[in-house]
Amino acid sequence: MAHVYRGPPSFLKATLPARPPCSPRFKAPLQSSLHQTGTNRFAASARPSLAVPRHLNKRSTKSAIASSIQEVEATDGEEVVKLEVEVAEDRCLYTVSLAKPLGVQLAEKGGDIVVEEVLPDGNAAKCGLIQPGDILRGVTGRIVEGGARRDIGGFRRSKSSLFGDLVFVGVDGEAFETVIAAIQSNRCSQCTITLALDRSI
User: How many CA atoms lie within 13 A of 171 on its CB side?
Assistant: First the structure.
């Protein structure tokens, strides 16, 4: 399921219905500073910090510039989360929901997290929308609150829960490791991950 937003927007919303799991699963090796989704780069004892971003479900301080703000929603069952991002008028924002593993290789370039490669035969390649060079602007992740918790690098996980609350993590200004931790927090085997990306028109 994908949604594309074009031109100078007002406030655009897209509701992404929950999707059935995709049966094919693909694994790919990890390469140094790059991250290929579907890998288990971080051991539980070394998982990077993932805090709930301050901007979740709140208006951006720059929201007065309505022509450059877009608001997107992602749903997973009954859970609905929103992300607000600024997008230049010469760029196109889109969202896509994929089963795991995603089949994309991410890298940090010039302060942005970009799609370095779409892996052949992966779920992203099957979708056909994601292209190398697309900039990641947000991703859904899961935060567990309550229960018998243990702190893993500031990211609190419940021993009794595998899922947690769905959140839309804004990528802008976040560390690469935090974004990867957000992607890897989607541990539900039937959960899809929603990505918000943009590219030049």
Answer: 25
